[in-house]
Amino acid sequence: xxxxxxxSVPRRPFNARPIYRGLxxxxxxxxxxxxxxSAAKRLTVREQIAQRAALAKALPEPAPEAIALDxxxxxxxxxxxxxxxxxxxxxxxAELYAAFRARxxxxxxxxxxxxxxxxxxxxxxxxxxxxxxxxRFAVARPLLDAAxxxxxxxxxxxxxxxxxxxxxxxxxxxxxxxxxxxxxxxxKVQLNCLEVTAEQGPLHYIPAQRSQQARTALGxxxxxxxxxxxxxxxxxxxxxxxxxxxxxxxxxxSSRCLHYGSxxxxxxxxxxxxxxxxxxxxxxxxxxxxxxxxxxxxxxxDAMQRLALGFG
Length: 312
Known about the structure:
- By secondary structure, the protein is α+β, with helices and mostly antiparallel strands.
- It has ten helices and nine strands.
- The chain has helices at 17-24, 30-44, 46-57, 86-102, 106-112, 132-138, 141-151, 208-218, 227-233, 303-308, and strands at residues 75-78, 120-124, 156-165, 187-192, 204-205, 240-241, 249-252, 259-260, 269-277.
- A six-stranded antiparallel beta sheet has the order 1-7-4-9-3-2, with helices on one face.
- The longest helix is centred in the N-terminal third of the chain and has 17 residues, at 86-102.
């Protein structure tokens, strides 16, 4: 059993996901939805947003070799040696996966998720309260600092999941080119928990500026984009794949970088994914992380790390 600390819980904005999904049915423009819902959230947590912005502004400039996101690309792959704890975190996730397989629960999970059998969560959202070592990695300072500098605020780890992708032959939903439309900007981290080769259906992405050029040429505002359209735009030449050993991965703005993954793999893929989002992001992920209390194993986290997990 995981024990908890008595850390204070700063006020968080209202959960806008039901409102966002309802307004989407009215076919309202997405930029309008983002603007209105973010403004409404800011009214409820104005002081905390100012505090988070001040902390981000006070961060020193990153070293040349540090993990960082620039405005043009908004993406950066990393190797295990660049990120302390990456290998240990990947191995811990692999242990959870091995235990899941040993229990013979794969087929039951597939049956419960027939609409999206290519992306199955073994741990999601508040279930991570039982895995404080993984929570600690989600607020590792090299990643958190990179996201804070890029977003201009200390973000919330808004959603988190350990994803299993079994072999599949589909190319639907998030297996097609898209951007994550939950916010104008967000930072997604994806950690390879097993070695990822072309046979594991790796994440494919296009750097932000080149993605925007392709989207403008295609008149894309939302939804999926076909391979043929991306190829016709010329952006196919700029595609990068997240390949590498356990503990490698990528940090990118998935709201600006076109991407897809989990497609056509012949071997299992296992990745730990989490999203850094501004506190006033217009809506939330479907695997939202909002812990009722901070696990005691996270009691020594610093102020920025606690804020990123939603605690003071």
